Structure formats: structure tokens, C-alpha cells
């Protein structure tokens, strides 16, 4: 069993438990369920946008503990202040050390920044959770979903007013993921089955992504030069976690990168 299969197996058990604790009807009564959603695609395309989606990630299966000393509300507020176009908050506990509270705290501390629920969605119930916890965007990972599930979950998200960041890693995943309900496609430079990271993945796939969607490059990004190169290739979003989180002050690390990006543009 590869790590992705392990995660999905565990996730299905977790979701069954969550459903037994809180019904879908109850989720709809959460105050955040009725809130107005912030658009990540609009934020990425806005004039002067940094394009950076800054992630809060305590640990990961590939890196182990990255940072367990900082608070989600401090880090995400610092990310917003430093010019993040969006926030990504891991809600998987077992493998990434996140939880629902992290997302809710990030939401409360950043009312106007688009927030992505970063998790392994394998059931429609999790999309209702995302909305109830205050997310604006959900992640769908092609590597763990069938084309039918992708279509169904993307339509559910859309009906709830949430955007979808559709994550792909190769040509085959991209082709079977395209559905009209998507406005954001993320190319993960990291192979979730082997953890190998290569920016070439983003550079290779960009041509095959329709221009009607906003293109996001994910994982393994750190330098302003690489971001510039990906921007030139057509990417408008850059999802960065570890590079910020491994420092004691992730918001400052983002601020430094935004500064460096301005230098590179001139
Ligand atoms: O920490 P990095 O290398 O900057 O990567 C961030 C983000 O892309 C990565 O956390 C990620 C991309 N897709 C995922 C799916 C599930 C969990 C995590 C991820």
C-alpha cells in the first residue's frame, strides 16, 4: 500500500465517525455555513496579486515535523498581512497534524482572505464540513478520485458556492479531471505516492490546461526565480507551505519572498 492509499483508507474511517457525531443537517446550521464566500480565483487574478497561496502545515509524511511551535491564527494573520492571495490550511490530523479548529481559527483571523480546506476529500460530507468550518475553496485530488466522483464533488462544491482547486500530477489525471465546474487547476510538483518533487511537472503540463481555468503550481517552491519562471509559463497561483513553515516566522518568510519577487519583476 502506498502512502496515499493509507491516507485514503484512514480518511474513510474518519469520515464515517464524523458523520456519526455530527449530521449533515447539523453542519448546515453552523454560523459559517451561510457566510459569503471569498473567491480564490479572483484574488489570484487581481491586479498586483502576489499569487501566493500560503499554507499552514505542522507536519507531513514526507518531512515529519516542520513546525509545531506556532499558532495558526498568528501565522495566517501574518500571511495575510504579508500579501498572501490565499491561505491553505491542512485539516488532516493523522498525517499532517491539522484539524477543524485550525481552519475555523484561520477563517476568523482572516475574514477577507480566501481560505482553502486542504484535505483528502473522499466523501461529499467533507464538502459540507468545509463550508461549515468557513472554507472558501476545497481541494480535490485526482490521484484518489474517479472521474465520476470528481464531477459529483465539483458540482456539490459549486452548488454550495465553494470553488474547487483540482489537483493533478500528470497528463492522465488532467484529462480525466476536466469538468465544467472547475475554475482552478493545481499541478502538484510532488508525486503523492513517491514524494518525488519536480518543477518540470508544472512546466510540462501547463500547455494542456485550458485557458479558462486559473493555473496553480503546488509544492517544492521556494525561490522568486522559479515563481517568475512559472508565471511566464502561465501559472497565476503558487502554493507554498514548507518553505515558510520551516522558519520560526512564516509570515516574515512570505514577506521576504514577496519582496524578492518585486525585485525579479523589475
Ligand atoms: O510544503 P510545500 O512543498 O510548499 O507544498 C505545499 C502544498 O503544495 C502541499 O502541502 C500539498 C499539495 N497537495 C497536497 C495534498 C495533500 C496534502 C498536502 C498537499
Automatic annotation (TrEMBL):
Pfam families assigned: IGPS (PF00218)
Keyword Lyase: yes
Keywords linked to the UniProt accession: Amino-acid biosynthesis, Aromatic amino acid biosynthesis, Decarboxylase, Lyase, Tryptophan biosynthesis
Protein's pathway: Amino-acid biosynthesis; L-tryptophan biosynthesis; L-tryptophan from chorismate: step 4/5
GO terms (BP aspect): L-tryptophan biosynthetic process
Keyword hit for Amino-acid biosynthesis: yes
Indole-3-glycerol phosphate synthase domain span: 4-256
Top-level EC class: lyase
Domain of life assignment: Bacteria
EC number: 4.1.1.48
Catalytically driven reaction(s): 1-(2-carboxyphenylamino)-1-deoxy-D-ribulose 5-phosphate + H(+) = (1S,2R)-1-C-(indol-3-yl)glycerol 3-phosphate + CO2 + H2O
Coiled-coil blocks: none
InterPro entries membership: Aldolase_TIM, Indole-3-glycerol_P_synth, Indole-3-glycerol_P_synth_dom, Indole-3-GlycerolPSynthase_CS, RibuloseP-bd_barrel
Single Gene Ontology MF annotation: indole-3-glycerol-phosphate synthase activity
NCBIfam families: PRK00278.2-4 (NF001377)
Protein name per the record: Indole-3-glycerol phosphate synthase
Organism: Siphonobacter aquaeclarae
Species lineage: Bacteria, Pseudomonadati, Bacteroidota, Cytophagia, Cytophagales
